[in-house]
Amino acid sequence: MSAIPMERPVLGDDEAAALTGLAARVRELAEATVLTGAGAAEAAAVADEIAALTARLTAERRGAPPFVTPGERRMDRQIANPVSGPLNPFAPPIGLDVTSDGVVRGEFTLGAVYEGPPSYVHGGVSAMVLDQALGMAAAATGTPGMTATLETRYRRPTPLGVPLKVEAKASRVEGRKVYASGTISAPDGRVTVEATAMFIMPQRFVTSEY
Ligand SMILES: CCCCCCCCCCCCCCCC(=O)SCCNC(=O)CCNC(=O)[C@H](O)C(C)(C)COP(=O)(O)OP(=O)(O)OC[C@H]1O[C@@H](n2cnc3c(N)ncnc32)[C@H](O)[C@@H]1OP(=O)(O)O
């Protein structure tokens, strides 16, 4: 493993569609892996086949995840983002919309690969989802920043396998600092996790282009 460089290739539409299709299949594979009842011999045989497929993909290897040309928002270019990126098999992925008044909203369902306590979402996964949503709300103010603080309050367990909602909004901007808050809620509308965060536009990006 080596450091990942900043410079990125930018995918065309066809390549992005093919690679996000590949990621969707790998995501299914991850869920199939944690849920399979295959016996030892079958699991070992499948592992060999997957190793061969991994070798095929690795034959042409990039030094870093690619970007796509962003739409209205520069933050949309990172299609390998681990929360919202369709190119990342680790991501659910969660589609997050930003309204004209800066509210970030998404609906999502988390399956067995995100389990923490039995039948509930892992708290670190909830924090990651909120970090992303609050970070996008901060970026929507026009001052994108890195997470400096993130506080989560777990009010009740977040269930797996049911539609959840995440919502976030920035509350204020103070120079390079942006404060934001948000929630995850269950289908009955009750909040399961609350978060507040502060994002800072790094000094080094104030003078150079991010
Ligand atoms: C342009 C950037 C790109 C970002 C992309 C945006 C994309 C948008 C969409 C995607 C959304 C993704 C959402 C996930 C975002 C992550 O996951 S980011 C990854 C996790 N966070 C990190 O790794 C951050 C690591 N920390 C750092 O890099 C640096 O410490 C920071 C936070 C950038 C600050 O560095 P700095 O600019 O050198 O700040 P510095 O001048 O020392 O301090 C400025 C002020 O902030 C205060 N401060 C500094 N750090 C802290 C702290 N941790 N706690 C409290 N106060 C602090 C200082 O005390 C100082 O206060 P004042 O004296 O002004 O009152």
UniProtKB/TrEMBL annotation:
It is found in: Cell projection, Ruffle membrane; Cytoplasm; Membrane. It catalyses: (9Z)-octadecenoyl-CoA + H2O = (9Z)-octadecenoate + CoA + H(+); octanoyl-CoA + H2O = octanoate + CoA + H(+); decanoyl-CoA + H2O = decanoate + CoA + H(+); tetradecanoyl-CoA + H2O = tetradecanoate + CoA + H(+). Signal peptide: none annotated. It is a peripheral membrane protein. GO terms for cellular component: cytoplasm; membrane. One of its GO terms (biological process) is fatty acid metabolic process. It holds the Pfam family 4HBT. One of its GO terms (molecular function) is hydrolase activity. Its EC number is 3.1.2.2. It comes from the Bacteria. Its main location: membrane. It is an enzyme of class 3 (hydrolase). Residues 120-191 form the Thioesterase domain. Keywords: Apoptosis, Cell membrane, Cell projection, Cytoplasm, Fatty acid metabolism, Hydrolase, Lipid metabolism, Membrane, Transit peptide. The keyword Glycoprotein does not apply. Belongs to the THEM4/THEM5 thioesterase family. This is Acyl-coenzyme A thioesterase THEM4.
